Amino acid sequence: MAYRPHLAAALSGASIRQLAYWRNPTRSGGAILVPEVSERPPLYSFRDVIALRTTVYLRRRISLQRVRRALENLYDLGEVEHLSHYRLIAQGSSVVLVASDAPAVDLVEQPGQQVTVVMADVLQPFTTADEIRVPGLLQPRRALRVDPEVRSGHPVISGTRVPFELVAGLLRDGVPADRIAEYYPSVGATAAADALDFANYVDRYGRTPAA
């Protein structure tokens, strides 16, 4: 299962226009992220969404030009794994690579130099540079979960394999929340409401313009 652009945008905090811009190289540097599932049509993996969240998180304080420079220097250092493999954080006006088994390394101001950093977690909720609130990746709503081992990371009702949009679709078709259990016995009214709320968020996010 793969993430279509609107869902990848909603879970990462990137706008649809940013997704399109970031998957293409420019004169100033290579692509930020090319979808690994499919380029045409664009389909994103769970790893892609984590990488996109990292980019959005960095963009709160760092220019896109510096983010591109950090990625170029990362690859120059011999790092060739998928971007989600790396923990990148903003440190002042620079980007720093943090590893569990090695000192943190600057990627922009003084590439390769070891630095001391304050940790951050891009999986937790955060606010973008455009003041858009991005939900936690693994729990986008109280009753929803994202687990790469369950439906390849597609958001589902917690404790089930039921995709959120199936429940939201029933509510939109007029089925009362307290009757959703007739279709999905493990889904209560509160979880159904969360599914609809998240579906509305995804729909709205697809129409959010890029900065």
Model description:
This protein is of the alpha+beta class and 211 residues long. It has a domain at 138-211: Winged helix-like DNA-binding domain superfamily/Winged helix DNA-binding domain (Arc Repressor Mutant, subunit A). It is built from 6 helices and 8 strands; from the N terminus they run H-H-H-H-E-E-E-E-E-E-E-E-H-H. It has helices at residues 5-12, 16-22, 46-58, 64-76, 164-172, 189-205, and strands spanning 87-91, 94-99, 102-106, 114-115, 126-127, 133-134, 144-145, 156-157. A 4-stranded antiparallel beta sheet has the order 1-2-3-4. A two-stranded antiparallel ribbon has the order 5-6. A two-stranded antiparallel ribbon has the order 7-8. A hairpin with a 5-residue loop joins strand 5 and strand 6 (133-134). Helix 5 (164-172) packs across helix 6 (189-205). It comes from Kribbella flavida (strain DSM 17836 / JCM 10339 / NBRC 14399). This is DUF433 domain-containing protein.
Distance between the termini: 30 Å
Q: What is the overall silhouette? A: elongated
Mean pLDDT: 90
- Please outline the major beta sheet: 4 strands, antiparallel
Order of helices and strands: HHHHEEEEEEEEHH
Q: Under CATH, the topology of the domain at 138-211 is which?
A: Arc Repressor Mutant, subunit A
Count the helices. How many?
6
Would you identify the CATH architecture of the domain at 138-211? Orthogonal Bundle
Q: From the alpha carbons, calculate the radius of gyration and give it in angstroms.
A: 19 Å
Look at the helices and sheets and give the structural class.
Answer: alpha+beta
Count the strands? 8
Strand coverage percent: 5-15%
Helicity level: 25-40%
Under the CATH scheme, which class of the domain at 138-211?
Mainly Alpha
Q: CATH H level of the domain at 138-211: which superfamily?
A: Winged helix-like DNA-binding domain superfamily/Winged helix DNA-binding domain
Segments where pLDDT lies below 50 for 5+ residues? none
Give the neighbour order of strands across the main sheet.
1-2-3-4
Protein name: DUF433 domain-containing protein
Organism: Kribbella flavida (strain DSM 17836 / JCM 10339 / NBRC 14399)
InterPro entries: DUF433, Homeodomain-like_sf, WH-like_DNA-bd_sf
Pfam family, one: DUF433
